[in-house]
């Protein structure tokens, strides 16, 4: 497997994983909000979840641009 393809596969996997983790955490944080958890728990979890989700999207976009080069 050439170096370009390996890099594409690794970055794609990382990006997809970040999207999954971020979405799961954001949804779990909304559950925590309605379960009367402390404010800082669900706000911190939701913020981190959204950050992971956006980070995963950015990595996937960069990966798709890598394939075009």
Pick out its properties.
single chain; 69 residues; mainly alpha; 2 helices; rod-shaped; transmembrane helix; transmembrane; membrane
Summarize the SSE layout with pairings.
Layout: H1 3-34, H2 39-68
Helix pairs in contact: 1-2
Characterize the structure shown.
The protein has two helices and no strands. By secondary structure, the protein is mainly alpha-helical. The protein has a domain at 24-64. The protein starts with a helix and ends with a helix. 13% of the residues are buried. Keywords: Membrane, Transmembrane, Transmembrane helix.
The number of helices is 2
Radius of gyration: 16 Å
Structural class by sheet pairing and helices: mainly alpha
Give the distance, in angstroms, between the N- and C-terminal Cα atoms.
17 Å
The unreliable regions are none
For the biggest sheet, the summary is:
none
Helicity, in percent?
Answer: over 70%
The helix/strand order is HH
Total beta-strand segments:
0
Overall geometry: rod-shaped
Beta-strand residue fraction: under 5%
Provide mean pLDDT, rounded. 91
How would you briefly describe this protein structure?
The chain crosses the membrane at residues 7-27, 39-61. Keywords: Membrane, Transmembrane, Transmembrane helix. The chain has 69 residues and is mostly helical.
